[in-house]
């Protein structure tokens, strides 16, 4: 790629990798500040699927960018301050404007071609991810939700305090108070929108996840001659954690392939359901019942299921086909309660810590415990001192490491 286009930074944004949605390289002042909100806004602005060459808000300010979308997965590639390799360039890369460069069609076409290959490879690696990746992805997803909740709590409290002050009748300048109040209210909405967006990144509606599975299996029906029947889950079912949705699709694809390798299979039935705690998968064929539970391909799929603390069962009846049942829990397993006696916490401090770990805000904790927010803050200060931590996030992480949920 560098043979055709030189750039100050490269950023990839994909929702298929829930734990690591961004991959980036290049100038530290760009890759350390670029946000998911900026990348999402840029991706939304590219409506025709073609390469975008222009200016976009990235890392806190407008920058020249070359952006491409992979149509199948929606993954986004962004190159900042792009210009054709070999073109004279004396100024610092961060100061190049789009008027200073002329991206030729050859360079863009080559970058587009390379990006399609890279994005497809990302998609394949996620679809065939090993159990270790699924475990890491699930842990990273949960941690990002917790950190986002912490940031939302911090900024919401600050802005709500500011709103209260600005609405005070003791302020004389009504016009200033009205203007700043409006701006602050919009900021509050923006923060909560970002929090919702982060949650969306780590969850996928069950109906959408099943539709993606149907799309993935479409070529099977087109070229194999085998009929695949889809029984859709309830549309109001609980959203799936991203890694569960990805694993479920990969497991079903693997089961369908294994069933298609048997003789005399003409029909496969796929049924998803959700009981609120688990994703329930049933895949059945009409073959001779020769699917072997101990076959290498089935054992590989079973390891994926076990990586998510799930269960796979195969019922085979000679002459009647195979019936496979998979259960994938939607929640992280709760570890046994850890020993926190070494922290010498008072009963009320332990209660506050438990509510903190649950992601509750100071105001909610105060309401649940029947105490004031100032008292909650008093207990927080004592907690931080006893746990030798400097922030709520550190306290949560330490509590989790001791099995406290």
What can you tell me about this protein's structure?
With 405 residues, the protein is an alpha+beta fold. It has helices at 28-31, 36-45, 105-127, 131-166, 174-202, 206-224, 242-260, 296-307, 347-357, 362-369, 373-387, 392-401, and strands at residues 5-6, 9-13, 22-26, 52-58, 61-69, 76-80, 83-84, 203-204, 227-231, 240-241, 267-274, 278-285, 311-317, 321-329. The protein has 4 domains: 5-127, Beta-Lactamase; 131-204; 206-329, Histidine kinase-like ATPase, C-terminal domain (Heat Shock Protein 90); 341-401, Arc Repressor Mutant, subunit A (Orthogonal Bundle). A 5-stranded antiparallel β-sheet has the order 3-2-6-5-4. A hairpin with an 8-residue loop joins strand 2 (9-13) and strand 3 (22-26). It is globular.
Number of strands: 14
CATH class of the largest domain: Alpha Beta
Main-sheet strand order equals 3-2-6-5-4
| Whole-number total of structural domains | 4
Cα Rg = 26 Å
Q: DSSP helix count?
A: 12
What's the N-to-C terminus distance?
A: 47 Å
Order of helices and strands: EEEHHEEEEHHHEHEEHEEHEEHHHH
The CATH architecture of the largest domain: 2-Layer Sandwich
Report the portion of residues in β strands. Answer: 15-25%
Residue share in helix: 40-55%
> Assembly type of the shown chains?
single chain
Class based on secondary structure composition and strand pairing: alpha+beta
User: Main β-sheet, in a few words?
Assistant: 5 strands, antiparallel
Mean pLDDT: 78
The CATH topology of the largest domain turns out to be Heat Shock Protein 90
Per the principal axes of the C-alpha atoms, what is the gross shape?
globular
């Amino acid at each position: 790629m560098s043979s055709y286009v030189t750039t100050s930074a490269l950023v990839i944004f994909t929702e298929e990798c829930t734990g690591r949605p961004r991959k980036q390289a290049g100038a530290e002042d760009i890759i350390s500040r670029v946000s998911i909100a900026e990348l999402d806004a840029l991706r939304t602005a590219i409506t025709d699927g073609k390469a975008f060459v222009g200016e976009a808000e990235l890392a806190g300010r407008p920058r020249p960018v070359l952006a491409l979308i992979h149509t199948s997965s929606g993954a986004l590639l962004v190159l900042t301050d792009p210009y054709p390799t070999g073109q004279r360039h004396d100024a610092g890369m961060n100061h190049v404007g789009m008027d200073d460069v002329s991206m030729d069609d050859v360079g863009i076409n080559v970058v587009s071609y390379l990006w399609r290959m890279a994005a497809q490879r990302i998609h394949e690696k996620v679809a065939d991810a090993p159990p270790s990746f699924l475990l890491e992805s699930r842990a990273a997803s949960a941690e990002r939700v917790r950190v986002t909740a912490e940031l939302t709590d911090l900024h919401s409290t600050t802005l709500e305090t500011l709103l209260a002050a600005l609405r005070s009748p003791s302020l004389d300048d009504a016009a200033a108070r009205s203007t700043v109040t409006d701006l602050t209210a919009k900021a509050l909405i923006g923060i909560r929108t970002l929090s919702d967006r982060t949650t969306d990144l780590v969850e996928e509606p069950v109906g959408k996840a099943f539709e993606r599975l149907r799309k993935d299996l479409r070529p099977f029906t087109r070229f194999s001659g085998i009929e695949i029947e889809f029984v859709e889950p309830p549309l109001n079912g609980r959203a799936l954690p991203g890694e569960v949705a990805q694993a479920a699709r990969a497991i079903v694809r693997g089961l369908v392939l294994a069933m298609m390798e048997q003789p005399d299979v003409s029909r496969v039935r796929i049924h998803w359901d959700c009981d609120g705690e688990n994703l329930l998968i049933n895949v059945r064929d009409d073959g001779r019942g020769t699917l072997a539970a101990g076959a290498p391909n089935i054992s590989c799929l079973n390891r994926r299921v076990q990586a998510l603390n799930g269960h796979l069962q195969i019922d085979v009846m000679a002459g009647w086909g195979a019936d496979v049942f998979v259960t994938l829990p939607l929640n992280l397993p709760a570890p046994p309660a850890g020993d926190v006696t070494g922290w010498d916490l008072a009963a009320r401090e332990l209660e506050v810590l438990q509510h903190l770990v649950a992601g509750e805000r100071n105001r909610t904790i105060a309401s649940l415990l029947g105490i004031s927010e100032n008292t909650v803050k008093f207990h927080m200060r004592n907690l931080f001192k006893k746990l030798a931590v400097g922030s709520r996030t550190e306290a949560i992480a330490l509590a989790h490491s001791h099995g406290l949920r």
